[in-house]
């Protein structure tokens, strides 16, 4: 366990950590100290290491968060868990969202209690909202996931769906989205229907290939275990024993959304993902996503999870871009 010491001056703090197992410092710091560099960049601190001691300098709150990140990563290594850049970003995200009740501090200092296992990887939450979302994915029958791009809404839903499919908890996986932003007007595009809609469904394919070997994805698509189709293909069906995901749901009309939600069958699970601030319909005020959330939030068995720019888990610059676009304009 790391030992802590602090000497603070009015505008800056200097924290010192001492680690009692030096052989863990290599994986803790990362190749060429890349983990330390990431912590410095994200939290605005300076970190220096000498022997088994690490010194952190910066504004008091930032230095304390950096200390928590290093302590949390060290504890993960000490308990036999690997630490890579994804883990570093996850713990930084947790520390950056510390709350007074200490919930996040406990998550930072220990390996995550919620995770999704697929054939190719084990996925852990990288923000407190992702933790709540993953808990809802494992618990609730229907979930609305709202927020900007890059927060993991669709990716985590696909991961949970794949985990339940390979675990035998559902018989099939159905992924859908509006084929084009302005109402699925596909006639002018070249090719057959699959060639017309596949470009719009590419993000769903990408997530699948990240969870399963390529040959398994193709085999399961061919057998019908995995179906990827525009929302118009859902009409008239009852979807039982299935995990159903609707992506880009903000670009559905209220009628389309009602149609989709009422496809829900026995032993099914449904996740509706979208960004209410990125509506591409001719009349943005008539989004089926906003209409459905307004009607259904609070209904028993339905969870609503809201992400913000602080939950963006892509490059840190993406979060700053989202904040700039969502903030007040000049």
Automatic annotation (TrEMBL):
Record key words, sorted: ATP-binding, Cytoplasm, Nucleotide-binding
Family matches, as Pfam families: PhoH (PF02562)
Primary localization: cytoplasm
Record domain PhoH-like protein: where: 123-326
GO molecular function, one term: ATP binding
Keyword Cytoplasm set for record: yes
Subcellular location: Cytoplasm
Gene Ontology CC: cytosol
InterPro entries according to UniProt: P-loop_NTPase, PhoH, PhoH2-like
Protein family: Belongs to the PhoH family.
The protein's name in its UniProt record: PhoH-like protein
Gene source species: uncultured Sphingomonas sp
């Amino acid at each position: 366990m790391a030992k802590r010491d602090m000497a603070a001056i009015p505008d800056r703090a200097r924290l010192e950590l001492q680690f009692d197992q030096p052989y863990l410092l290599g994986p803790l710091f990362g190749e060429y100290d890349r983990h330390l560099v990431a912590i410095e960049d994200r939290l605005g601190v300076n970190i220096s290491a000498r022997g088994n001691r690490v010194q952190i300098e910066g504004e008091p709150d930032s230095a304390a968060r950096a200390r928590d990140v290093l302590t949390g990563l060290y504890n993960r290594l000490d308990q036999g868990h690997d630490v890579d850049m994804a883990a570093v970003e996850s713990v930084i995200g947790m520390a950056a969202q510390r709350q007074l009740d200490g919930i996040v501090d406990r998550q930072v200092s220990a390996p995550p209690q919620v995770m999704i296992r697929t054939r190719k990887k084990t996925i852990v939450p990288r923000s407190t909202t992702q933790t709540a979302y993953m808990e809802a994915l494992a618990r609730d029958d229907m979930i609305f996931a709202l927020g900007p791009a890059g927060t993991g809404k669709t990716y985590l839903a696909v991961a949970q769906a794949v985990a339940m499919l390979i675990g035998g908890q559902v018989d099939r996986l159905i992924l859908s989205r509006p084929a084009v932003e302005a109402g699925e007007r596909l006639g002018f595009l070249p090719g057959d229907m699959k060639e017309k809609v596949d470009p719009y469904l590419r993000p769903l394919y990408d997530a699948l290939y990240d969870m399963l070997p390529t040959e398994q994805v193709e085999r399961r698509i061919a057998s019908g275990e995995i179906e990827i189709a525009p929302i118009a293909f859902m009409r008239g069906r009852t979807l039982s024993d299935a995990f159903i995901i609707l992506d880009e749901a903000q670009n559905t009309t209220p009628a389309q959304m009602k149609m989709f939600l009422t496809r829900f069958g026995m032993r099914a699970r449904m996740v509706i993902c979208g960004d209410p601030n990125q509506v591409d319909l001719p009349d943005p005020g008539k989004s089926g996503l906003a209409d459905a959330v307004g009607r259904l939030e609070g209904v028993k068995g339905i969870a609503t999870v809201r992400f913000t720019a602080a939950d963006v888990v892509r490059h840190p610059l993406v979060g700053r871009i989202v904040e700039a676009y969502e903030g007040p304009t000049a």
